[in-house]
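TEACHING EXERCISE
Course module: macromolecular assemblies
Task: Read the component lines below, then compare them to the predicted structure of the full complex.
Student: A.B.
Group: 4
Components provided:
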Amino acid sequence: MTILLNNDGYWHDKYRAALAKHLPERKVVEFDDDYDKADIEYALVWKHPDGDLPLYPNLKAVFSLGSGTDYLDAHKALPTAPIFRLIDPNMADDMALYTLYWIIHFQRQIEVLRQQQRKAIWQRYPTPLAHEVKVCVLGQGAIGGHIANVLSRNGFETFGWSRSPKSLDGVNSVVGLEALQTVLPDMDVVVCMLPAKPLTHKFLNKDIFERMKKGVSLINISRGSVVDEDDLLSALNQGQIGAAALDVFAIEPLPKSSPFWGHPNVHVTPHMSGATNADTAVEIIAQNIKLFEVGTMPNYRYEREGI
Amino acid sequence: MTILLNNDGYWHDKYRAALAKHLPERKVVEFDDDYDKADIEYALVWKHPDGDLPLYPNLKAVFSLGSGTDYLDAHKALPTAPIFRLIDPNMADDMALYTLYWIIHFQRQIEVLRQQQRKAIWQRYPTPLAHEVKVCVLGQGAIGGHIANVLSRNGFETFGWSRSPKSLDGVNSVVGLEALQTVLPDMDVVVCMLPAKPLTHKFLNKDIFERMKKGVSLINISRGSVVDEDDLLSALNQGQIGAAALDVFAIEPLPKSSPFWGHPNVHVTPHMSGATNADTAVEIIAQNIKLFEVGTMPNYRYEREGI
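Instructor-supplied answer key:
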């Protein structure tokens, strides 16, 4: 009945406290502890070393401590036990508010207001109403769909791009590449929620930037590898992309030498759009373990395939 | 059947276009035009000169081009015809998004992220979830209540302070001064939506700032006269108020000499939280004129009394 904990080495104290609260009867060991692999039934992991989990003979299930699956995709050896992604509504809400913040920032030209303040200039200008601002969320998975919903609920004209049609209240479903190319020229803001997959690698490149409206704003909160960063920098320098809020990068931490840090139209945030909250994460996983133990398969099982 | 237009001299071209669209059969004159006062049946005005409107013998109704009534309160002579405030849901939405923007700004410490970016520092820190952030909206009129609703819908723990109890979905109703003093010490953000009235004059002063949590964030989007600006500056300098987003001031435009312009913890915006949109404003007023002409009293009639 032992649980293995390895959140990439971070915040184990918070996870231990949350486990003590939500699964008080379970023994918890950390990856660096001295323990018998045969005792481990459940593993709560993030960026766990490739090849380790298949060595646990009594492993029943793995609970990833995030929603992204790129580190699992990169593993050569996965255990036969099912793996579940963490879809925490709190994290989805958090990412939606992060997105909403930057959309309002761009809608109201807050940088202009900041410049005016520095010069003590009182100058009003018209700003579009929310329903006059068109936003497309690329990727309509559990979190991308939630973000589109939140944007729509706050009045923005919202589009959601996905492989298969989605029926989300107030969100215009855009399906397939051709349809995307048709709507892109009208978008004022593009939000990237595409997962890092072979098919999405550098999907946001020169070709797609050129299809966007001149001066479009870009928000990337999924993975840096989805963007061709050289092309993005050129598009920013040419004004094709007017501004960008970037939370994720091909290399993290973003190297000191990156031109994004000092770019006047780029907002860099350190992969903080939706942090995993240990308490709510473990609460969800505890419920899933209980479901699993009575024979019910939890949601969001990780599958190797698909973009 | 003539309509008088006087939006304080501003944007008359936009209002004329909107009137031509929504009330195409009506003649429109501007205050500076040469016209016979006896022809005027309806007046669409903002900050119209005191004493003028009572001189129109056939005036049926006055439609103010904003929600605030302080300029009407200051008038010595008002016409006997009813006066209606403009409550435009678009403006209320706009003000709610402005408020939401600054709440997220404070919640996520975006200024810290901006400083980190200037130094190319990649440093994460925990941010509270929305439901861990407590916000009180002072004033629960048509717009203040809407703002509280939007904040609650976006997950913030929302309180609304008003004279009489309100029943708004997800909003904790706080009634009376004693109850306000009880909840204030717990608030992370205070949003001022109080109208400018004798009772609210400099209501936000040293005494009330001292009851707030140290480091509280303040957002003022109603009227500058509700705040004692000297006390606010002291509270900011002492750190009692951690940050402020101020859209309104005792004197507007804010004088170049104001210390708010250069204060590191103050965000000055030029009374832009919710601009009147000529098209939607005139659309609402056109509907109200049609209601009025079939004997139905429109909503939001201006009353001289009350805070």
